Amino acid sequence: MAERGQTKVRVGVVTSNAMDKTVTVAVERTVPHPLYKKAVKRTKKFKAHDKDNNCNVGDVVRIAETRPMSKTKRWRVTEIVRRAD
Fold first, then answer.
1. Which of 26, 41, 55, 65 lies at a CB distance of 3.0 to 4.6 Å from 8, suitable for a disulfide?
2. What's the rounded Cα separation, in Å, for the pair 81 and 8?
3. pTM of the entire predicted model
């Protein structure tokens, strides 16, 4: 049997939990500006599967890449790192 590669893992903040069993997670990263080399923040939003509807807006969560669950959902919530205050 062939070995599987490492799954991609990201940490981000839940920005929406309005859908059933789905949350929107904003993942922020810093990249150097191509010309001026200053650190610039880039944000990308992922839809992640939250099977127990545990996540709330503001929670910091760890998400992992998985098989496609729907048209836009390709990530799942693996753990809640920190709850929102």
1. 65
2. 17
3. 0.89
Q: Which two tokens stand for residue 80?
A: 């809640």
Count the neighbouring beta carbons within 10 Å of the beta carbon of residue 72.
11
Nearest C-alpha neighbor of 84 from the set 16, 30, 8, 2: 16
**Considering the domain boundaries, does residue 2 fall inside one?**
no
What's the domain range around 14? 9-82
Note whether 48 and 63 are within 8 A (CB): yes
**pLDDT tens digits for 57-79?**
999 999 999 999 999 999 999 99
Calpha distance 24→14 (Å, rounded): 6
